[in-house]
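[audit] Reproducing an earlier prediction to check determinism. Same input, same settings, fresh worker. If the tokens differ from the archived copy the diff job will pick it up downstream; this log only records the rerun itself.
[audit] input (177 residues):
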Amino acid sequence: MNDPGFLGRPEERRAYVVTKLAVLAGAAVLTVPLSHWLGTRAWLGFAAFAAFILLSTAGVLAATRKRSPSAEGPPPANGTGAADPVDGDPVVLPVEDSLDLHPFAPAEIPSVVESYLEAAWAAGFREVRLIHGRGIGVQRERVRSVLSRNPLVREIHDAPPGRGGWGATIAHLVDRR
């Protein structure tokens, strides 16, 4: 699988590091007033916290670098690997019976779902699972709105607990004619 996953792109790694540094800066600011009551124990606690944050950040970055596309070489040219969306190339995904919508921007969800439904129906799937996440229900409603208007969809309902529960929607597609 060529999906780099969490922190696969350099800008994501930079944002991750900046976030961790901001957390450390905030902890340092909070340690100053605590040191008036706790003395050096406050700074020892901060030092332990800082060491943990820095070591865990280094471990996460090292693990994601090993999985990043640059470490694996270019994506395959056979159309099954995802192209770099930053370059404007379309992302080609293999059609499977489920689609995780987490990697897509909210504005892209309706068109991604429409395209996926057409490809899944053409591939002969009669049931598909769209993983939108649990959250507060915004993506769930957006996905269900698209599904309810699509003529390829016969029925929709929550996934069973073992397949995502209310964090995923099952769509039953019409029969191919």
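[audit] rerun output stored. Observation attached for the diff report: Strands lie at 98-100, 127-131, 153-158, 168-173.
[audit] end
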